[in-house]
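Researcher: Let's walk through a ligand-bound prediction step by step. First, I give you the protein sequence. Second, the SMILES string for nicotinamide-adenine-dinucleotide. Third, you return the three-dimensional complex as C-alpha cells. Ready?
Model: Ready.
Researcher: Here are steps one and two:
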Amino acid sequence: MGKRKLRVALLGQGFMGRAHSNAFCQVKHFFDVPFDLELRVLCGRDRERLEQMAATWGWAETATDWREVVTRPDVDVVDIALPNALHAEAAIAAARAGKIVLCEKPLALNATQSAEMVEAARNVPTMVWFNYRRVPAVAFARRLIEEGRLGEIYHYRAVYLQEWARRPNLPDTWKLKRAEAGSGVVADLASHLIDLALWLNGPIREVTAMTRTFAPGRDLEDAGLFLARFENGSVGSFEATRFATGYRNRNAFEIHGSRGMLAFNLEDMNRLRFMDASEPDSLQGPRDLLVTGPGHPYSENFWKPGHIVGYEHTFIAALGDFLQALARGERFRPDFEDGHRVQLVLDAVERSAASGVWVSVPPR
Ligand SMILES: NC(=O)c1ccc[n+]([C@@H]2O[C@H](COP(=O)([O-])OP(=O)(O)OC[C@H]3O[C@@H](n4cnc5c(N)ncnc54)[C@H](O)[C@@H]3O)[C@@H](O)[C@H]2O)c1
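Model: Step three, the predicted complex:
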C-alpha cells in the first residue's frame, strides 16, 4: 500500500517561505516519513517572484489570496509563514476547516489571540516553528539536563543579539511596524529565548522588564531586557536586541547548576560547552563537545560524526519529528499550547516594561 498523501499549502514566500520549502523538499531524504508530501500551493503577494519560487522549489500552483487557500478541499496541511499579524486569522480559519496547522513564531500578537488559536485548533494537530529546539546541540543540552547532569539549576542566562535595525536606509519591512509585527525585538527574538527557556528550564513565574527604542520615530522596541524567576527556584536574565553592533545572529544561553554548566551559541551551532562539576577541581572547566554524533540527537538522520549541520537542518528536523509524531498519533511539541505559553510570558514582559514592576505570568 502507498503512503498517505498530505497536500501542503504554504502561506508566505519570504525568508521562512524558503526555509520551509526546503524542509518540505528535504525531509524525506533524512527522516523515515510515513507520508507522501505533495507541495500543492504556494501563496504570496508578489506574483512574479511567486512563480519563480514555485518553480525553484516544486510547488504545483500559486495563489495570492490566503483566505481562499486555507479552506481548499485539496489541501491537508496549512503552513503559515506570514507576518505575525496574520497568524491568528489564518490559523483559526485553517483549523476550523479541519486542516493540520503549522505556524511560525511568535504564534500570535498577544496571549488573547493565542488562546483563541489553541481553542480553534483543539481537534487538529499543530506545530509552532520554534526550530532552535531541533539544533542537535540544544536537544543534547536538554538530554543532559533531564539526566540530572546539571543538578539543581541556579542561573539561566540568554541573549539574542542582532544588529540590522541600527542601520540607516533600511528597506521597508513589516518587522519594524507595530501593527504588523505586534512588537519589535521582544516578539521576534525574545520569543525564541523564552521557548528554549521553558523547554530547558521549566515554567517562568514572574518577570521584570525594560525596553528601549533607539531609532527615532520607530513605533516598536529595538531592545528588550528582562529578569525572570523560574518555578524551579532558578533566576534568569534575558536580553534581545537588534542594535548589538557586531553581532549578526547570536542566539546563546548559559545554564549553571549545582553539578555542572552548559553553554550554547548559535553562531557555533554544532558545539555545546559542558562542565562536569563532579570532576576533580584541578580538571574542572567547560569542554567543547562537537555534537554531531555518535550518540547525539539527529546524528543518525544527518551526516557521519564530525560532519557539521546548518540552519536549514533545524527546520528539516522539526518537520521530520512532527510528521513522525503525526503518524504515531502523538502530540508534537512545541504545539499551539506551547506557543501560547510563550505568548503569556511575552505579554508579561510587555506589561512589566510599561509599568516598571514585577509581573506574574499566568499558568495558562
Ligand atoms: N523560526 C525562525 O527562526 C524565524 C526566522 C525568521 C522569521 N520567522 C517568522 O516567520 C514569519 C515570516 O517571516 P519572514 O522573515 O519570512 O518574513 P518575510 O517578510 O521574508 O516574508 C513574509 C511573506 O509574507 C507574504 N505576505 C505578506 N502579507 C501577505 C498576505 N496578505 N497574503 C499572502 N502573503 C502575504 C509576503 O509577500 C512575504 O513573502 C514571521 O512570523 C516571523 O516572525 C521565524
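Researcher: And what stands out?
Model: Residues 281 and 312 are 39 Å apart (CA to CA). The longest strand covers residues 35-43.
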